[in-house]
Amino acid sequence: MTYRRLFSLRQAVPQNAVPQSEPLPGQSPNNAGGHWYEVGDWGRLDRFLLLGSEGGTYYVGERALTRDNAMAVQRCLIEDGRRVVARTVEISQAGRAPRNDPALFVLAMAAAAEDEATRRAALSAIPLVARTGTHILAFADMVEGFRGWGRGLRRGVARWFTSQDSDRLALQAVKYMNRGGWALRDLLRLAHPLTDEAATRILFDWIAHPNQADAIGAARAAFPLVDGLYRIREASGPTEAAAIIRDRRLPREAVPTEKLTAPEVWESLLADMPLGALIRNLGKLSQVGLLNIGSEAAATVIRRLADGEALSRARIHPVQVLLALKTYAQGHGERGKLSWIPVPAVVDALDGAFDRAFATIEPTGKRLLVAVDVSGSMHGTRCAGSPTLSAMEAAAAMAMGFVRTERKVEVVAFDTELHSAPLTPRQRLDDVVRLFGRWRGGTDVALPMAYALGRKLEVDAIVVITDNETWAGRQHPIQALKRYRETVNPAAKAVVLAATANAGSVVPDDDPLSLGCAGFDAAVPQVVAGFLKG
To answer: CA dist 212 to 177, 186, 218, 262, 332, Å?
Structure first.
C-alpha cells in the first residue's frame, strides 16, 4: 500500500455531495462535462482583454472562443459602450495584458457600435490603445471587418498621426512602415491628417510618396533617423553599418536582414535597444557571439534586466518574461533554425526579471494555500497567443509569484489527485515549470478544499489557478469549500484565477468571501492582496 492510499482525499466526501457531472442550483454545463457558474459579460470582457483567445483552450477552438467572447463584448457595448472603451484603455495603458491585440479588437468593435457616443469614445481612444505603428496597422485590419471608412474613423486615425511629435512619428514610420498587408501610406491616404508643423508635413509627404526623390531628400535632411535608413542600405560592410546605427540611433527594424549576422551590428543596436526588443532578441545576441560568459554585452543585458523601474516603464508583462526565459534557456527557437548556447547568468537575470515584472507588492501576512491545476487541459491550452507557453506553465509562474511574496504559503498541484509541490522562494522558475510538467490527469478543483479540510489546515485563503473545466470530482468545489468553512475557518476566502478566457468559474459571484479574476494579469497580486486584506 502506498502512502498516498493511506489518505485518499476523494474518499472524504459527504453522503449529500453532488458529483461535478451533475449541476448545483445556478450552475450550467462547462466544456468538459462538468458544471460551473457562468461569468457575467463584464467579467468575460476583462478575461478577454487580459488573456485573449489565441490558440483557444483544450476544449474550445480559437475561432469559437473568440466568437463567444466577441458576443459578450457586444452585449457589454449595448449595455454601456463608453464603459467598455474606458476599461479597454485602462487595461491597455497599464500594460496589464501580455498582448495588446485583444484591446485593439475590442476598440475596433466599439468603433462600429450603433451608439454614437460609444463610437466617438472609441475613435478618440485610438492613440491611447494603438500606441505604435504596428498597433495602428493591426487596428486598421480589425476595424475594416466591422465597418467602413467613414468620416469619423478617418478623423480618429488622423489623430493617431497628429497626436505624436514628429520625431516619434518618424521612429514609427521607420520601424513599422508595413505590417499584415497594410502600410502607413495606406492609412495616411485614407485619413488625410492635417498639421501646421513643417517637419511633420515633410514626414507625411515621405510616407505618402516613399519613391519620390524630392520627398526622400527632404525627409533625410529633416530626420537623421530617415537618413540612416537609406544610408545603412548602402553600407559596404558590418563596421560601416555599425557606425551608422550608432550615429543615427537606428532600431533593429531599419537594418537590412543580410546585415543582421554580424556581432558589430548587434553591439551597436544593443546600446539603444528598447527593453522589450532586448528580451525578444536574447537568442540572436547569443547566436552571433555577442553574449558570452563574462562579456561586456552580457553585463549590459543583466544590468538592464535588473532594473525594475525600466521593466515597469516598458510595460513588460510577466508572461513575456516567462516566455523569454523558457525559450532562451532551451537554446533554440520554436520556429526556424536559430540556436545558441545560453549564458547561465542571463538565464538567472531573466528569472529575477520575472519577479520585477510584477509591480511592487507588500506581503499580506495571510496564511495561503496555493493550488495549481496541472490537468491535461492546462497543458493543452496555449497562453497569450504563444506557440510554446502553456496555461499550466504560466500558472506555475504565478504560483511562484506568491511564494516569493508571501512568507506563509503552501503550494500543491492537482489533477484527479493532489500532489505535493513544496516550492521555495529560491527555486528557479524553469525548475518549477519542469516539476508541474510531471502531471496531466483529469480535473477536480474540489481537491484543494478537501485537502485543507482533511489536514485541518488553518488558512486564511485558498488560491486556485485553473481553467475552471472541472468534471472529475465526487463533490463540487463550492461544497468542499463550504465544509471547510463550517469545520475549520468560517472566514476563509477563496480566490480563483482564470487560466483561460472562457465563460465560467467554480465559485459564484454572490459569495462575498470568494474572488474570481484573470490569472495572468500583471495586477493580480495587488488585487488579491487587497481582497485578502479586506
So the answer is: 16, 16, 10, 32, 42
Q: How far is 499 from 508, CA to CA, in rounded Å?
A: 17
Collapse the DSSP code of 291 into the 3-class scheme (helix H, G, I; strand E, B; otherwise coil) and give the result.
Answer: coil
Residue 421 domain flag: yes
Residue 213 burial class via C-beta count within 10 angstroms: exposed 0-12, middle 13-18, buried 19 and up:
exposed
Question: 378 and 521: one domain?
Answer: yes
pLDDT tens, position by position, 266-325: 999 999 999 999 999 999 999 999 999 999 999 999 999 999 999 988 888 888 888 899
Angstrom CA distances, 209 to 138, 202, 203, 233, 364, stand at 22, 11, 10, 19, 58
**Do 329 and 394 fall into the same domain?**
no
Structure confidence by residue, pLDDT tens digits, 369-380: 999 999 998 888
In a domain, 104, yes or no: no
* SS3 label, residue 38: strand
**Is residue 15 exposed (0-12), middle (13-18) or buried (19+ Cβ within 10 Å)?**
exposed
d(CA 461, CA 514): 9
The reply to whether 184 falls in a domain is: no
- The number of residues in the chain equals 534
